[in-house]
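Thread: quick sanity check before group meeting

JM: Hey all, I'm pulling together slides for Thursday and realized we never actually wrote out the predicted structure for the chain we discussed last week. Dropping the sequence here so it's in one place. If anyone has concerns about the input, flag it before I start.
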Amino acid sequence: VQLQASGGGSVQAGGSLRLSCVASGKIFSFDTLGWYRQPPGKQRELVTTISSSSGIRYADSVKGRFTISRDYSKNTVYLQMNSLKPEDTGVYSCNADTRNGAYWGQGTLVTVSS
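JM (edit): ok, ran it. Output follows.
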């Protein structure tokens, strides 16, 4: 499984960004796709995940501002980020949690300035 993420960038607080992650290889609808982020100087943390079996999960810090969606036909997961805050700054990585193991894409940097 390979994951290709795109869509990071720099934005001012209150702005929006949309991340995309295309998964190639054996991905099933019940596999979990998700986004994690690593803020500067901190550990990686869960942002949100989605699967047909488990539904959608959000970190409390992004509820109501971020929306994850998934196009099962294209094996693509999207992260719409609205009302961005400086504390959302970090490297965002796409993750696939499958029966064969966990896979990570390259990170994409999101920078939110105040």
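AS: nice. The mean pLDDT is 96. The longest strand covers residues 90-98.
JM: adding both to the slides.
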